[in-house]
Each structure stands twice: as structure tokens, then as C-alpha cells.
């Protein structure tokens, strides 16, 4: 009977499991970023055809929106009666920034400055906004801060434009 009894199979040594990395799940790749720089040729990416505002123009827009909200009947103002904007720290700092750095606070001066810049069709919207916000003292300073002006205007023409703009600025007395 011993001869007929099946011999047990030799015990197999269990092989350690092999490591298999999880299947790679790829995330959608973000669209390639376009270069954005304001050099000799302004590259603005998605903002190429968007109208830019100077700080003074942005202040005028925000002020007009706040005035319109204050004129609304109390029940139509979504923020509540007498509130032109949310009282968040960010909004208050934004409004304070606009009030501090706006160069042209009177509407007449702002419109005159816009008309003066609009008369120079060779300037892009961004260049006009930067000239209106930076208040450069000289053509050299303007061309250093806004390199794309170098090939668009002569120093004399730019200097004359800056002098006219300086006359329109609201100076703190």
C-alpha cells in the first residue's frame, strides 16, 4: 500500500509577489501657455484684443458703479440700503488703491487725457493705459518702462505728449 499511495507533491516555495506599478492615469494637460511680455513687441496672450484701462479710468468706472448703486431704491440694491460695495477688506483696499494712485480724478481731465491719447493712433490700448497710469516725467523714462514705444514715437513727440498729460494731472496741494 505504501507503493500505491500517492506521494505528496514537493512543497512549492511561494514566490514573493512581484511589484506592479499601478496603471498610469494621465491628467489632461493644460493648454500651452503663450508668452506674455511687454517688450519691443507686446505679447499679451489671451488679452491681446482686450481694451486696457488706466488706473484713473478704472477708478471712474468703479465710482460710477457705486454711484448707480447708491441711487437705486433701497429694496433694489442687492447689498442693502446705502451700501455701494461689500465691506470686505479686499474691496476696501481696492477702492483705496484706486483713489490713491489715480492721476486724473476729475472727469474733465480724464476725458481730456483719453482724447489726447486717442489722437495717437499708433499707440495700442495697453500703451495708452500705461502712459495714463505711470505718469512718466520724460520720454526716456517712458521708453524704459514701456519698451514698445521705442519704435512708435520720436522722443520729441513723446515728450510733448507727456508735458500735455502732466498739465491735466490732479496734483495734491
TrEMBL record:
Predominant location category: nucleus
Family per similarity comment: Belongs to the eukaryotic RPB4 RNA polymerase subunit family.
Domain named RNA polymerase Rpb4/RPC9 core: residues: 45-172
Gene3D superfamilies: 1.20.1250.40
Protein name per UniProt: RNA polymerase Rpb4/RPC9 core domain-containing protein
Entries under PANTHER family matching the protein: DNA-DIRECTED RNA POLYMERASE II
GO biological process, one term: DNA-templated transcription initiation
GO CC term, one of those recorded: nucleus
Species the sequence originates in: Westerdykella ornata
GO MF annotations in UniProt: nucleotide binding
Keyword GTP-binding: no
Localization: Nucleus
Keywords: Nucleus
Residue numbers spanned by region Disordered: 1-43
Amino acid at each position: 500500500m505504501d507503493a500505491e499511495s500517492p506521494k505528496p507533491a514537493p512543497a512549492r516555495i511561494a514566490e514573493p509577489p512581484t511589484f506592479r506599478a499601478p496603471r498610469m492615469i494621465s491628467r489632461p494637460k493644460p493648454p500651452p501657455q503663450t508668452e506674455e511680455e511687454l517688450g519691443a513687441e507686446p505679447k499679451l496672450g489671451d488679452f491681446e484684443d482686450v481694451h486696457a484701462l488706466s488706473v484713473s479710468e478704472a477708478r471712474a468706472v468703479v465710482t460710477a458703479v457705486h454711484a448707480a448703486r447708491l441711487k437705486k431704491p433701497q429694496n433694489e440694491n442687492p447689498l442693502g440700503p446705502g451700501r455701494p460695495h461689500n465691506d470686505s477688506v479686499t474691496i476696501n483696499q481696492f477702492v483705496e488703491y484706486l483713489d490713491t494712485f489715480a492721476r486724473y480724478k476729475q472727469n474733465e481731465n480724464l476725458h481730456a487725457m483719453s482724447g489726447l491719447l486717442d489722437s495717437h493712433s499708433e499707440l495700442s490700448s495697453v500703451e495708452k493705459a500705461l502712459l495714463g497710469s505711470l505718469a512718466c516725467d520724460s520720454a526716456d523714462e517712458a521708453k524704459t518702462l514701456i519698451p514698445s514705444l521705442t519704435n512708435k514715437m520720436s522722443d520729441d513727440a513723446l515728450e510733448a505728449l507727456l508735458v500735455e498729460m502732466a498739465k491735466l494731472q490732479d496734483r495734491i496741494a
